[in-house]
């Protein structure tokens, strides 16, 4: 099969289009004929080696974390899916590889594709949808009437998280440029701060939850918009000791992550708020709940551009540029 692979960790290197063996099918796996694949900033970070200490892959390996396609074969113990089912997924860490024609995925990571979405639209959902779900519902416990600040509202996670928070009945603030203000308001944002002109830390206060997706400076400023008892949840780092324990990292890595996050954890404690790092996990059951929200009309995909499979490197470069509104998708089939 054709696939785009990482030959070595490299900040400036590109993916190589290669012939790779068709994936082996385990007893609990479904073999998916890939129709479309979402592109994420995580793909770039994996490619450059930024996540190598906690997500080690041995080159050459196939990149890609989002998939929509059709089941063509199932393992002997699979009960939820059958050949012909249209599905989507974010394959678990260690088993990524959606920039390809086929992929084998554990059935626990898979959900039926929303009936009202195209393959390209469906492929835009899993990683950002699960990130928003696990941040706002699982970690934050966001409730009706609470206030949440979702950074970078026009990005992949932001466009989904705003809609999910609105569905939950929260009041939502976000940051966006003037060109994206109408988009994020249409998705459900109540307060839009123009990050080019205004300082969100001065414009916002008394928030229950912050979803941080930006740099260390923005993370620290986010502490000031929370009320006592509020929660600062970062999906961009730094990883904290709890994450290190959950991942079963070795003692050296645990110590490094403790040191990296010590400053922000201490500042959060002094302000009476809680900091935590969230790294999204594959979860087919949660994705099934997201499917129901999409089919009900509560959430819609926001797709910026669809690239042909041959232009996968161009798609990744576009994501790295930071210009995309919503998600970027590769049409494989």
UniProtKB/TrEMBL annotation:
GO molecular function, one term: oxidoreductase activity
Family annotation (InterPro entries): ADH-like_N, ER, GroES-like_sf, NAD(P)-bd_dom_sf, YIM1/Zinc_Alcohol_DH_Fams
Domain Enoyl reductase (ER) as annotated: residue spans: 13-330
Gene3D superfamilies (alphabetical): Medium-chain alcohol dehydrogenases, catalytic domain (3.90.180.10), NAD(P)-binding Rossmann-like Domain (3.40.50.720)
SMART domains according to UniProt: PKS_ER
Pfam families: ADH_N, ADH_zinc_N_2
Protein name from the UniProt record: NADPH:quinone reductase-like Zn-dependent oxidoreductase
Phylogenetic classification of the source organism: Bacteria, Pseudomonadati, Pseudomonadota, Alphaproteobacteria, Hyphomicrobiales
